[in-house]
Design goal:
Elements lengths: L3 E5 L16 H9 L4 H4 L6 E4 L42 H30 L2 E9 L17 E4 L7 H13 L4 E3 L19 E9 L11 H15 L1
Parallel strand pairs: 1-2, 1-3, 3-6, 4-5
Antiparallel strand pairs: 4-6
């Protein structure tokens, strides 16, 4: 086992409870917003993993659970209530929110925190690799709508991301022939609140892969997915 923890929060399409969803629009959102095949692309042998078992459309474990979350105003906070186009998709009572928050959001973070503590105990530090994919064309809800998106986006945090790790990742992916940007079109990386900007033993970085590298509009290309996995494994193993 290594000190790397691969956090894969958006690869699932499973919705544990459909109550509150209006019609079937949530199914299209799942197809649109899922980070398809990231559980395969970032399946690095020997690493520790946290793979969220439910869809982000049901509960997004990457969002802040409070006023820090800027996507809440668009109805896309921890619980998505609106589609990417801004249409009402779901209605949740305060009671249901509280139940789902404890059963899914906080439960996931508790498990991740435990894994981080175990890794620190063994290696003196832990490095979270926050694993995502993104579309080549910006979503309506994207805060950064810059066109001409790169192949790879590296997300960093001034407190938790070592500059050597950032530079080495950029160099490595560029050497593989990919275009790379840092904190564009997406920025930051997940660090559980209990550690966030408090514990230097917890390092973190985000890697976002452009879906054009391994998907057509609707289909995952297995050969290209495996090739990406081999490239990513080559850096972390």
């Amino acid at each position: 086992m290594s000190f790397y923890i691969f956090n894969i929060p958006h690869s699932s399409t499973y919705v544990p409870f459909t109550e509150g969803f209006i019609g079937k629009s949530y199914l299209k959102e799942i197809e649109l917003l899922t980070d398809h095949a990231t559980d395969i692309i970032f399946n690095v042998e020997g690493s520790r993993k946290m793979i969220c078992p439910f869809s982000r459309v049901f509960c997004d474990v990457e969002r802040f659970p409070d006023s820090r979350e800027e996507m809440e105003k668009y109805g896309m906070g921890v619980f998505y209530t609106h589609t990417d186009k801004g249409e009402l998709m779901r209605e949740l009572s305060a009671d249901k929110r509280a139940i789902f928050m404890n059963a899914f959001y906080y439960n996931y973070h508790t498990k991740l925190e435990k894994l981080i503590h175990e890794t620190i105990k063994m290696y003196k530090h832990a490095t979270i690799v926050d694993c995502h994919s993104f579309t080549n064309t910006p979503f309506n809800r994207d805060l950064d709508k810059t066109e001409n998106r790169p192949d790879i986006c590296i997300g960093t945090d001034l407190y938790h991301t070592p500059i050597d790790l950032e530079n080495n990742l950029v160099y490595y992916f560029q050497k593989q022939g990919f275009s790379v940007s840092v904190n564009s079109p997406y920025k930051g990386c997940l660090v559980p609140s209990v550690f966030l900007h408090r514990n230097k033993k917890v390092q973190a970085v985000m890697i976002e892969v452009n879906r054009n590298l391994y998907m057509t509009e609707r289909k995952v290309l297995k050969r290209k997915t495996k090739a990406l996995n081999k490239i990513i494994s080559g850096f972390f193993q």
